[in-house]
Amino acid sequence: MSVDATTVRRIAHLARIAVTEAEVPHLQGELNAMLAFVEQLSEVNVDGVEPMTSVTPMEMKKRPDVVNDGEIPDDIVRNAPETQNHFFLVPKVVE
Amino acid sequence: MTDLTSLTIAEAREGLANKSFTSLELTDAHLAAIEAARSLNAFVLETPEKARDMARAIDAKIAKGEGGPLAGIPLGIKDLFSTRDVRTTACSKILGNFVPPYESTVTSQLWRDGAVMLGKLNNDEFAMGSANETSCFGPVVNPWRREGSNTTLVPGGSSGGSASAVAALLCMGATATDTGGSIRQPAAFTATVGVKPTYGRCSRWGIVAFASSLDQAGPIARTNRDAAILMRSMAGHDPKDSTSVDRAVPDYEAAIGKSVKGMKIGIPKEYRLDGMPTEIEKLWSEGAAWLKAAGAELVDVSLPHTKYALPAYYIVAPAEASSNLARYDGVRYGLREQGRNITEMYENTRAEGFGAEVRRRVMIGTYVLSAGYYDAYYIRAQKVRTLIKKDFEDCFAKGINAILTPATPSAAFGVGEKAGADPVEMYLNDIFTVTVNMAGLPGIAVPAGKDAQGLPLGLQLIGRPFDEETLFSLGEVVEQAAGRFTPPRWW
Amino acid sequence: MNVSVKPGKLIKGQTGDWEVVIGMEIHAQVTSNAKLFSGASTAFGGEPNTQVSLVDAAMPGMLPVINEECVRQAVRTGLGLNAKINLRSVFDRKNYFYPDLPQGYQISQYKSPIVGEGEVIVELEGGRTATIGIERLHLEQDPAKMLHDKLPSQSLIDLNRAGVALMEIVSKPDIRDAEQAKAYVTKLRSILRYLGTCDGDMEKGSLRADVNVSVRKPGGPLGTRCEIKNMNSINFIGQAIEYEARRQIEIIEDGGVIDQETRLFDPNKGETRSMRSKEEAHDYRYFPDPDLLPLELTQDYVDELKAKLPELPDQKKARFIDSLGLSAYDAGVLVAERESAVFYETVLAGLADRARDGKLAANWVINELFGRLNKEGHDITDSPVSAAQLSAIVGLIGEGTISGKIAKDLFEIVWTEGGDPRELVESRGMKQVTDLGAIEKVVDDIIAANPDKVAQAKAKPQLAGWFVGQVMKQSGGKANPQAVNDLLKAKLGI
């Protein structure tokens, strides 16, 4: 499988990475080189094989239902580009 | 008095205990070495004040007979580990001047045990790379050079800063992370010992994520013993990481010097690549011979899906990364580039904040997870991963204790040498190491010799799940046979 | 067509009757102290970003650890919906960018939800019921809250809600009209509240519904559906469905086609409108969250939760009918809200003879109490007359100490002044006169004073009621009506 320029733009948008028209052919070449490389997986017989879900099999531990975190609004917003009264700010989102 | 920076952790531990020197002296010696080695670009942030404060505090404890297993030992920390109130960037522009209000579990355990932080070490951006050339702080230089040459070489990656700093005696040991070979490959390129523990052995909490199902923290040190000492502090169950294993941490150091007599060492034929340099081939046989001489039994084994590990990795790792890196959106921390609306703000921020390699991997990961391709790529790769793991399980079921392979297909190469159009050429560096991550196993890279140009080469030992101890025992045999390698100082 | 589906009200168009097909996705916030994957509080209404952990803010290197209570609540809800509990379920990442989603993905369950198929029986008008199939229930993270109208050019983000556990309960497309839809949400909400797995507070957004609506000719192929997002009122759901169905019918009858799209209901205009701004091909790139392991439960765990499940409205209703002889309607009214059922059962608990007075108690709760509460804008939880007080009043009637009429006066006193009904009856002399001698004297006096009425009553026995009235009047309502009746019949010879 390989990707065309339209797909490169679609994927870039899906990943929210701006690409210029000039970058598209280059990216297309790189992505296709990677896809060509992984293509060899198609020769492996995977009939009846379970896809791996956890590499170290074990039971998932659960946390008790206890409030032991939070109340750190200064820490939460300390690195934010733009805040007001502990709210994060972003360009207006219209619904 | 010998130069304090040339001591091993074990030696420094003794010196501190018998008051030959203080942690402050030891720390100052390293801070001076770091300052003198800025041309290596191993550190992206030096924290001398913090280091001296920590050293003074631990000296006071040592004086009271308190301390801890790493009391007073100065270490470098890969910039992927969050360090409270100390800038942490994963060497990406997108994190900007991010200062975490928290400390990663692994580093907090090191400080608990008395270690001293010298600063933050360079790495490939978000640990994506095999040469430490993708860092937003620029490439790291390998302290090793080809004999008679001034060409600057890469230290490998992604933990290039860690490997370079340890090899150049800038710190006594370093934390590192390994997703496809990022500890073992740079260790091999710099003649240091690098351990990738079993998946789940070290907590991932507070380590900037690359590929969650593959990432593991581990140490880089100058000897097997030092690596074992660091491992004991780094490992352990963490309730904050659901994939962390609740299992007692053994005294890894006790495995150093333990007899390997009767152990069965697998030699996998699939690791014998066409066109592999004869020096690597020779090193491998030599390593096998040393283990045999120490009483181990060599067994030819087969790991039939080996060649598929790297392509499967280049689906699984970017897929997870594309999702893990979605949080870098310019909203809560890090870089923000304005746009006319929220979507443009995201797109501009991420285009500006991520380097080329990260953008490429995020895009390929997005593609393989997208509608219509998920089964063909991601599910197939995870099935292949099951087969890769089964290869190892079959092997261990036959009584094999560990597997010996070369660590890398070549020695260190020149900065910029592999920056060609095809990213796959660079990816092939991890061909011997990536299987271990795919199967969640422990692996160790130990220095074993030099190539004709005087560059270090390493061997890799792969162990059973949670049997890092056997790797330390075998690694020590190689170390005793091969000796230790220190780069001549030129910087 | 599913045999359990109840035909709904058809809508008349220009080309004949149309049938509405409705499916719903209910998002119910799980009742728990801490969030689904962090130790931050779930409490409503905190200061911005105070109930937020580093995990909820998706700081680099943060990892989710699942809250056992949220799992327990989801399983209990599944059991309450008579649904299949999946002993192995998987958390997936649903990837998309939006400022209310700090991680850039929502941890949800896609291919393997914790709960599979189940069903809910809903009550319709006139005692009819319908069975609505449940497709699945899964656990996921609530997104953050955004405020769009505080600043002119920016939106504000508060992560307090981010990461609170949600149960998404997906119905089968078994709902056929607005009445069924409203009844479905009402019943589901009631079950959740009985279970204590969601507080069901729609005003606070603890329960939100996405409603999928399409129309078709009865029995015909399914039409294209539109999804009305984020409905937080049962009445609005009804209005939105009515509007949306008619809108679709008009388009189709005018020769148009329905675009599959997401719409919003505007309660002020009573209309739905397209959310075109959000219209973008979604590609969520679901994959199993590698930070978590599969969620595995044992059958023992499920069985234990099942054994400890509280009595749910359907079971309670059946018990009220079977053991107390309540009408299906009365039983239905009492169990509809958990608080009403609790109140009624507290009244019952205070009665000396439940078999005798259970029905009477139901009448008093439904007619006197609910009527008065409604009239004065009270809720059952802040009723001026407590269950114990009402129980005492009903007991006094049942044992014959006071008449029904006096009981109403007593109820009024208790409502306005409070007090122990038994003491009030004593202190205010409200006791019914059961002393036959005293009643007989009154009866004799009235008969003696009204010979004409006696003659009339002998001719026309139904006129005896006049005498009853007179006796009750003279006794201040305290004469035992049965005793009065018996005496009059004997004395008048009728």
From TrEMBL, chain A:
Subunit structure: Heterotrimer of A, B and C subunits.
Example of a GO MF term: glutaminyl-tRNA synthase (glutamine-hydrolyzing) activity
PANTHER family noted in UniProt: GLUTAMYL-TRNA(GLN) AMIDOTRANSFERASE SUBUNIT C, MITOCHONDRIAL (PTHR15004:SF0)
Residues of the signal peptide: none
Protein name: Aspartyl/glutamyl-tRNA(Asn/Gln) amidotransferase subunit C
Enzyme Commission code: 6.3.5.-
Biological role stated in the UniProt entry: Allows the formation of correctly charged Asn-tRNA(Asn) or Gln-tRNA(Gln) through the transamidation of misacylated Asp-tRNA(Asn) or Glu-tRNA(Gln) in organisms which lack either or both of asparaginyl-tRNA or glutaminyl-tRNA synthetases. The reaction takes place in the presence of glutamine and ATP through an activated phospho-Asp-tRNA(Asn) or phospho-Glu-tRNA(Gln).
UniProt organism field: Bradyrhizobium lablabi
UniProt similarity note: Belongs to the GatC family.
One Gene Ontology biological process: glutaminyl-tRNAGln biosynthesis via transamidation
Keyword terms: ATP-binding, Ligase, Nucleotide-binding, Protein biosynthesis, Transferase
NCBIfam families the record matches: gatC
Family annotation (Pfam families): GatC (PF02686)
Lineage: superkingdom: Bacteria
UniProtKB/TrEMBL annotation, chain B:
Residues annotated as domain Amidase: 25-471
Entry-linked InterPro entries: Amidase, Amidase_CS, Amidase_dom, AS_sf, GatA
GO molecular function, one term: glutaminyl-tRNA synthase (glutamine-hydrolyzing) activity
Keyword Protein biosynthesis: yes
Highest taxon of the lineage: Bacteria
Biological process annotations from GO: translation
GO terms for cellular component: glutamyl-tRNA(Gln) amidotransferase complex
Keyword Translocase: no
Catalysed transformations (reactions): L-glutamyl-tRNA(Gln) + L-glutamine + ATP + H2O = L-glutaminyl-tRNA(Gln) + L-glutamate + ADP + phosphate + H(+)
EC number assigned by the record: 6.3.5.7
Keyword line: ATP-binding, Ligase, Nucleotide-binding, Protein biosynthesis, Transferase
Subunit structure: Heterotrimer of A, B and C subunits.
Family, as annotated: Belongs to the amidase family. GatA subfamily.
Summary of the function given for this chain in its UniProt record: Hydrolyzes indole-3-acetamide (IAM) into indole-3-acetic acid (IAA).
Protein's name according to its UniProt entry: Glutamyl-tRNA(Gln) amidotransferase subunit A
Organism, scientific name: Bradyrhizobium lablabi
Source species taxonomy: Bacteria, Pseudomonadati, Pseudomonadota, Alphaproteobacteria, Hyphomicrobiales
Automatic annotation (TrEMBL), chain C:
Originating species: Bradyrhizobium lablabi
UniProt key word Cytoplasm: no
Enzyme Commission code: 6.3.5.-
Residues of the Asn/Gln amidotransferase domain: 342-492
Entries under SUPFAM superfamilies matching the protein: GatB/YqeY motif, Glutamine synthetase/guanido kinase
EC category name: ligase
Quaternary structure, from the entry: Heterotrimer of A, B and C subunits.
Gene3D superfamilies: 1.10.10.410, GatB domain, N-terminal subdomain
GO molecular function: asparaginyl-tRNA synthase (glutamine-hydrolyzing) activity; ATP binding; glutaminyl-tRNA synthase (glutamine-hydrolyzing) activity; transferase activity
Coiled-coil region(s): none
Gene Ontology BP, a term: glutaminyl-tRNAGln biosynthesis via transamidation
This protein's record includes keyword Transmembrane: no
Cross-referenced InterPro entries: Asn/Gln-tRNA_amidoTrfase_suB/E, Asn/Gln-tRNA_Trfase_suB/E_cat, Asn/Gln_amidotransferase, Asn/Gln_tRNA_amidoTrase-B-like, GatB, GatB_C_1, GatB_Yqey_C_2, Gln-tRNA_amidoTrfase_suB_CS
Residues in the signal sequence: none
Name the UniProt record assigns to this protein: Aspartyl/glutamyl-tRNA(Asn/Gln) amidotransferase subunit B
